[in-house]
Specification:
Elements: H1 5-11, H2 20-55, H3 59-63, H4 81-84, H5 90-121, H6 127-137, H7 146-155, H8 162-166, H9 173-184, H10 188-196, H11 201-209, H12 214-230, H13 233-238, H14 247-252, H15 262-292
Helix pairs in contact: 2-15, 5-9, 5-12, 6-9, 10-11, 12-15
Length: about 300
């Protein structure tokens, strides 16, 4: 029996697609998606463009009535001006932020990962109550804890010190919650094999769980470092001496009741975000993957 022309068109790929309209709609949809993503990326980059443009301009050009896409007179000397300012030790502020950010990140990952692992893997009667208590801390506004936290830090003599800037913020209820969700989905077979070899909970955590969870730890490290670097209110309260200022507090000092040095603020801001960009570019591929691995299951 010979096949009809319609049957050949349906079965033979060389005869052409039986649904050319779908292919056209698919191409159009992809083009629209790329256009939307490109527009979103452009809108995202506009603040960075304005930041760099104003950082290399003069105050008159920044506040002028006519806007130019590029400075008419690019001031490369503005790059060193934040470090030459005698009123603010900007280099010291950058170093303080780096120390606080790194130690805060390491401490938070250690404390919250241990707490999350204990809530996910160590069975005891009040585990659920402790977990609900951790979730309750997420509902307490941060500003509410400032006064008692400052009183405690002051009584310990930690004002204007790294201990006062770092220790009170080591525990994060949100980070602990994410670690617990991740460890709930971690393969139990690996831990059971570790216990057969004689390892306890600490040995299984340190020798099995952590080496097989580096992607998630990198994602949490990125989020924690960015939050620590951008912290402003607590360093402003604890770091009262200029030698203990972080970079965010130093930036706020450029705006006074008498004067506002616009190009200096923009240049110092551009310099201060460079470490964040480097950290994000280096660890960005683990960020979304690590959050997705939490599973968000209970």
């Amino acid at each position: 029996m010979t096949a009809t022309a319609s049957e050949v068109n349906r079965t033979d790929p060389a005869a052409g697609s039986p649904h050319p309209g779908r292919r056209t709609r698919g191409v159009t949809g992809s083009a629209g998606l790329y256009a939307a993503v490109g527009l979103a990326a452009l809108l995202f980059l506009i603040p960075f463009y304005v930041l760099v443009r104003n950082a290399l301009s003069t105050d008159l050009e920044i506040t002028g009535e006519e806007w130019t896409f590029f400075p008419t007179d690019i001031r490369w000397g503005n790059v060193t001006e934040p470090f030459d300012d005698p009123t603010v030790d900007f280099g010291r502020a950058l170093w303080n932020s780096l120390v606080v950010g790194v130690l805060h990140t390491v401490g938070t990952l250690l404390v919250c990962s241990l707490a999350g692992y204990g809530l996910a893997r160590i069975p005891y009667r009040h585990a659920d109550k402790v977990f609900y208590g951790v979730l309750f801390t997420l509902m307490v506004p941060t500003a509410v804890t400032f006064v008692p936290g400052f009183v405690l830090v002051s009584s310990l003599g930690w004002i204007d010190s790294y201990r006062g800037l770092i220790v009170p913020g080591l525990f994060s209820g949100f980070t602990c919650f994410l670690f617990r969700q991740y460890f709930l989905g971690f393969p139990k077979e690996l831990e059971e094999a570790a216990r057969v070899d004689g390892l306890g909970h600490w040995g299984a955590y340190w020798r099995v769980v952590v080496p097989n969870s580096l992607n998630f730890f990198a994602a949490m490290a990125t989020i924690t470092f960015i939050n620590g670097w951008n912290s402003f209110l607590w360093p402003l309260v604890v770091g009262q001496d200029p030698s203990a200022w972080t970079v965010q507090v130093a930036l706020s000092s450029y705006m006074t009741n008498q004067t506002v040095n616009y190009h200096l603020i923009f240049m110092a801001t551009a310099i201060s975000i460079l470490p964040l960009l480097l950290v994000f570019l280096f660890l960005q591929r683990w960020l979304v993957q690590g959050i997705a691995q939490t599973g968000i299951k209970g």
